[in-house]
Amino acid sequence: GGCDSLVNLTLNILPLTEGSENVSICAGESYLFNGEELSASGVYTAVLTGENGCDSTAVLTLTVLPVQSTTIDATVCANEGYPFNGALLTDSGTYTATLTGENGCDSTVVLNLTVLPVYTEAIQVTICANDSYDFEGGIYSDAGIYEVTYQGANGCDSTLVLELSVLPLATSSSEATICAGEEFEYNGTVLTETGVYEFVYPGLGANGCDSIEVLTLTVLPAVPVTTLAATLCDGEVYNYNGEELTEQGVYSFNYTAQTGCDSIVVLNLNVNPVVETSVTASICEGEVYLFGGQVLTDAGTYIAVFQTTAGCDSTVTLSLLINTVNTNVIAQGNTLISQAANATYQWINCANNLPIAGATGNTYTPAQTGNYAVLVTQNGCAATSNCVFVQIVSTKEVLTSTDWSIQPNPASQVTRLVFESPLTEELWMEIHDLSGRSLYQKQLPAGAEAAEILLNELPTGVLFVRLSNQDAVSVKRLIKAAE
User: Fold this and answer.
1) Cβ pair 382, 375 in contact under 8 A
2) N or C: which end of the chain has fewer CB within 10 A?
3) Cα 273 from chain centroid (whole Å)
4) Other beta carbons within 10 Å of 325
């Protein structure tokens, strides 16, 4: 409308970007750059469009690394091997291995291997058993294969093998016996002494080797003396050469041996005595004493016969004593009194068979109803009394009759105590018969709502179930029915 119009221009100058990269490849490989496969070393440039729409220049410096090749010529002997690329080579030939060089490119190793021969020569020799053979400085007399190794002209081993065979000698043997003072003529030789005589006839064996005859000559003594020893027990008889001998001594007997030579036998006779011993032993009542295979439990005199080391009878008379322990206990009110004198005492709670701490006198007054016994040690022996029931009389009831019940009742095998509410304290449960004898005990824990009772071991009839604590009791009747 003829008035001014103001236009504001904000101009941004976008930067150009340039990047460079150094890359190495192995000869024979190529590198893709800007759509072109490159395989020669050099610097390559490419102009691209950047993210901001302006030119972006990329510069690549490409290095092509060389591939290395090595040739090795080697020579080994046939009995050796040449290690190459993890294998042990034993045949001549050309072998190639491709490895990775220090620059990361392939490195080719070519091995030209020559395997030189090893020479072996064998000879066969036969000798007689009493001969020997000299082989390369060694003297051999046993059959076998022997080897000597030298170094050949090509530097490899050359082996000389000897196969040695040994022919046996023709051998015969004979035995002869004469008396002392006599002569024995054999093959023209007069012999008078015991020994082994060898006669060699050279080359008369069937295989051409020596023939050997061996004579074993025994010369018996003119009056050979044989010494015998015998032992018997006093009262026994030793029969020898028709005589009955009972006394210790040395006896001599003359014979004519089957060889026709004189023979003298000397007998040393030893007579061992019979032993009698008396011993005394004592045991505790209820223990056993082993004596001569007998198991003894009663006092008395016993006799057993043993054998001594000499083999003769040994009679042992045993006087066996029995040490008894007085385990009688009487009750006076709630106090239990042991009747044992000069003894030590330990009172026991029969409910758990555990000793009661501090209860070591000859009397004990229980604090709660239960069965109690005393372990008495007297005369070196220990014994436990029968359990004695002590009932702490109370007029209080630990539970009212409506607070608990026996279900089922009567019962033959199993019944249960059922409580109206969980127990607030531990209670002691006992089952008694009509005579007051305790038959079953159990500790019931606080919080218990029921307790199971197994009746298999209890007698049939009327029983009493008794619950108690330190201050009160509660009793109900239980009928144990026959199964």
Assistant:
1) yes
2) N
3) 49
4) 20
d(CA 262, CA 253): 11
Report the 10 Å Cβ neighbour count for 405: 13
Phi/psi of residue 419, each to 5°? Answer: -105, 140
User: What's the rounded Cα separation, in Å, for the pair 370 and 348?
Assistant: 11
Edge-to-edge order in the sheet of strand 450-454: 404-407, 414-419, 450-454
Name, in order, each residue with C-beta under 8 angstroms of 100's C-beta and a sequence gap of 6 or more: 106, 107
Q: Which two tokens stand for residue 121?
A: 């020569």
Judge whether residue 55 has pLDDT over 60. yes
Q: Is 240 exposed, middle or buried (0-12, 13-18, 19+ CB in 10 A)?
A: middle
Note whether 428 and 370 are within 8 A (CB): yes
How far apart are alpha carbons 297 and 439 in whole angstroms?
A: 31
Of 70-79, 150-159, 183-192, 473-482, minimum mean pLDDT range: 150-159
pTM: 0.32
416 DSSP β-pair partners = 407, 452
- The predicted pLDDT at position 348 comes to 93
Q: Which amino acid would we find at residue 302?
A: Y
pLDDT tens-digit map of 58-95? 888 988 888 777 898 988 887 778 898 888 888 889 99
Distance CA 148, CA 422 (A): 102
Distance CA 329, CA 387 (A): 9
Asked whether 64 and 26 are in contact (CB, 8 A), the reply is yes
Q: Up-side HSE of residue 59: CA atoms within 13 Å toward CB?
A: 5
Could you give the CA distance from residue 183 to residue 217 in angstroms, rounded to a whole number?
11
* Residue 276 scores a pLDDT above 90: no
Q: Is 78 exposed, middle or buried (0-12, 13-18, 19+ CB in 10 A)?
A: middle
**Residue partners of 313: CB distance under 8 A and separation at least 6:** 233, 274, 275, 305, 306, 307
For 220-244, what is each residue's pLDDT tens digit? 876 667 888 888 888 788 888 888 8
In the predicted structure, residue 7 carries a pLDDT above the cut 90: yes
Beta strands per DSSP E along 67-118: 68-77, 82-84, 87-89, 93-100, 106-116
Tell me the C-alpha to C-alpha distance, in Å, between residue 269 and each of 56, 227, 231, 244, 265. Answer: 131, 11, 6, 12, 12
Q: Are 171 and 209 in contact (CB under 8 A)?
A: no
Q: Which residue has the tokens 């504001």?
A: 8
